[in-house]
Amino acid sequence: MFGLMIHQRRFSSFLFSCLIGFSLNPLLLVSLARSQTLAYCKLSPQAIAQKESLRQTALTGNPEGIKNYNTILTQHAQQINQCRQRINPKNQAIWLRLYPCDTRPGEIDRILDNIINRGYNKVYLEVFYDGQVLLPSGKNPTAWPSAMRSPGMENQDLLAETIQKGRQRGLKVYAWMFMLNYGYTYTLKPDKNSVLARNGKGETTTTAVIDQTKIDEYGESFVNQGFVDPYHPTARQDYLTLLNTILQRRPDGVLFDYVRYPKGLGGESVATKVKDLWIYGEASQQAFLNRASSQKGKDLMQRFIQQGFITENDVKAVNEKHPDEKDKPYWPDEKQWKTLASIPKMGETLQLQLWRLSVAHARQGVLDFLALATQPIQRQGIPAGAVFFPEANRKIGGMGFDSRMQPWDQFSSSIEWHPMSYAVCGQVNCITAQVQQVIQQALPGTQVIPALAGDWGKSIKNRPSLEQQMVNISATIPQINAFSHYGYDWQDLEETRQRKFCKRS
């Protein structure tokens, strides 16, 4: 406790010195959150009003108005950058989804102005979500429909436009993409049926949940979900085509979401037996059997996934069938497979070994897919990152695992880690605890950037304000110097409604 008080005092002194330094600038207001010690870079109401007036003038096509508007954009970009260099967090990002109504003249400018006005210097722009892509329908070589499909929008590239306009304002624009959740539209394609993830009941993720309108604890509907088999070559090729098309727009980075399998409802949220796992697609099954170290091991693995268990008679029959393999191992051990080593042992029987092997195989599919997608990004010299739930890699009870099988503790330290620290307990402690859990398991040097849900200055959905969350995390874990906020839609619900239904004038 004493150490925490010292951190808070140092943090307060540092931010106070920053506040004094920037208060001399009449265009920039670095506010202090109420009764908190975390400073954040915000433009003053006067500066915001001046810029909005110039934006309105620029919309008329007035050359002088356009020139003056561009000038103030540059000034504000410099001011926010200078502010962020002198205080923590150094980087503050916001998650953004665009809607068809945002194609109206000047709307992207207005949204990005709002973002820079609030002190953000990064935007995580959703470019692949709910089975659709933020690409113009006239230039969309991917397996998914364009999010902007209205007549007359065939060549409007909101992704490229947002990246360009963001940079003009000093904002770095990351592409935020779903990964293994390809969306419901993808599952409807007859030629993609074999690509879908399947469990031991033969279900896909769209047929496993009978009532697709159900909502999980994070507010996510199952309506638009459709998960694929990460081992399937078509799933990989379709994703790489999408990713390379996004990279042609030159984003400042790429973040991957849904780097996991689905989370079931109720008891289905815990996997306790092999048939609960999403490893029954053709490609995944074959990859699983290929992990065997001998033919006898392969035969046992085959029986295990087909039956859901093995018996002493199975072991006896397999050994008698392959007498020449008496001294050969059945399957890999920890020395050969890091993913297997990361899963706690539950016993030495062949049945328990096979269960552990199955879990490792499910997790390895996620890791392999993430590594594959990361390569073209890092070749461009821009950051890649993965978004994950800190609790999604848990072992639960004696035999169970979180059904998402999200092995974030095995993610590469060369990418950004974005833990979705969304715990809800009415206080900050449980949120900070999630970030601490990630820090403890990350290798030194790993860039950990917590994603926080909420709004400024008020509690929302039983979560404390963003200021309160950042203050507590920064005081407890001082090495954290970047955050992201989910999301733009939450910070002004009325504006979001207007944007969705084209109500703005």
From TrEMBL:
Coiled-coil region list: none
Record carries keyword Signal: yes
Top-rank taxon? Bacteria
Q: Give UniProt keywords alphabetically.
A: Signal
One Pfam entry for this protein is GHL10
Instruction: Fetch the Gene3D superfamilies from UniProt.
Output: Glycosidases (3.20.20.80)
Q: Which residues form the Glycosyl hydrolase-like domain?
A: 117-272
Name this polypeptide is given: Glycosyl hydrolase-like 10 domain-containing protein
What taxonomic ancestry is recorded?
Bacteria, Bacillati, Cyanobacteriota, Cyanophyceae, Oscillatoriophycideae
